[in-house]
Design goal:
Strand order of the largest sheet: 1-2-3-6
Strand content: 15-25%
Helix content: 40-55%
Distance between the termini: 23 Å
Order of helices and strands: HEHEHEEEHEH
Number of helices: 5
Structural class: alpha/beta
Radius of gyration: 16 Å
């Protein structure tokens, strides 16, 4: 509520930003927050870059929320990039972040209107994955292929 009613209007009044054209980037608990926003208020952002979200938190409630979003017929219009380090699966600790993110990606792909891309970054850990995932995420959600950084971004499909 704060973002929609106070923060965004404040920013849009003071900075040269395209009104309503927003991107959120979150890593770890920030990735969990971005996932929560996507599943509860998807219209707040056009593009979501979610890196190594802590989907294990609160008994995997974000996975349950994704199931509810699919069954509710929600039709969010957004681009979503999901990234995780291949070395983040640690079954001995009970945290299998790669598997959880793959599960979330499968559920999100069932939501009409979302364009979902996911990448597992080989050789990366929870702490090292962020820079590369953000770079790839930005290129993906703004439709800028790695070989053509000057390409004009395309608006998300409704």
């Amino acid at each position: 509520s704060f973002m929609a009613t106070e923060l965004f209007p404040f920013i849009e009044r003071r900075l040269p930003a395209a009104k309503g054209d927003r991107t959120i980037i979150g890593h770890s608990y920030g990735g969990l927050f971005a996932t929560f926003v996507l599943l509860t208020e998807p219209e707040l952002f056009n593009r979501y870059i979610i890196v190594s979200p802590s989907l294990w938190y609160a008994n995997r409630t974000a996975i349950t929320m994704a199931d509810r979003a699919v069954s509710s017929g929600q039709r969010p219009a957004a681009r979503v990039f999901l990234g995780v380090g291949a070395s983040e699966n640690q079954p001995q600790s009970g945290r299998v972040m790669v598997d959880d993110l793959k599960e979330l990606a499968g559920k999100l792909r069932k939501l009409p209107g979302l364009r979902v891309d996911m990448q597992v970054f080989e050789g990366e850990t929870h702490n090292s994955v962020f820079p590369g995932a953000v770079t790839r995420g930005l290129r993906t959600v703004f439709d800028r292929p790695p070989g053509n950084p000057e390409a004009t971004p395309q608006a998300p499909s409704p």
